[in-house]
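call fold target=23S rRNA (Guanosine(2251)-2'-O)-methyltransferase RlmB
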Amino acid sequence: MTTRRDGPGGPGSGRGPGGFRKPGGPPRGPQRRGGPPTGPRGGPDDPVVLYGWHPVAQALANAERRLHRLLATENAVARLTEELGPLRIEPELVRPSAINALLGPDAVHQGLYLEADPLPAPDLDDLPAEALLLALDQITDPHNVGAIVRTAAAFGVAGILTTARHSPSATGVMAKSASGGLEHVPLIVVRNLAEALIELGARGFTRIGLDSEAETALDTVGPRRPAVIVLGAEGKGLRQRTRECCDVLARIAFTGEIRSLNVSNAAAITLYALRQPST
């Protein structure tokens, strides 16, 4: 199955003082006044909007990321060039208020706004033989998914499976929460998660579902490769069909009074518990 990682914007026009480009009209796509873009997952031609230091700097450093438009304040451009050297795209020099108008006043953009193409994603058949994957079963909150992506990048996860429906777009809030992780961990969008898990099982992947009611404690599972860790939405947990596609269901063994965690925290604990000794 052909998959995609995250969606193109249009270039600006005109030049301002110092050779920087003036904003050439409002960007196209899911952004809106009154809040940063989250947007439902759209078609493959939808723009990807990245803002904030880490998402934008990591995208500029990633040669695979095709760039379309960069809006930046003077201070942000100075910091970028100091960190990265010559930029792959000519910035349009703007005031912070211009970015606020696109994202809303609450977005922490740090003077940086980037439109780009989505990154390519591998097919399931192209994943490394000893890959460690995550699979997200209808986790819809962009902050949680972004935090999971960031953690996955820290632990060398080869890819994250999400569904075409019931998952946030890899843009705006989600990309900001991922803090640059989208450049290192592909989001592999599949039509049906159960079918993807079945396919991975046929390839030898151990499918480990995280379930707070499971009999097996997570720390007894041990590192396995190749493997896919399956995470369910908070409250609902794993769907029945998803559970049936797992080889083992495991729980985090809590010792305190609170017996549940935010799903992104649970993902971090699980990845640490199942890490290989050499890492």
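return ok
The helical segments are 53-61, 74-84, 96-103, 142-154, 172-178, 193-202, 240-244, 263-273. Residues 1-42 have pLDDT under 50 and may be disordered.
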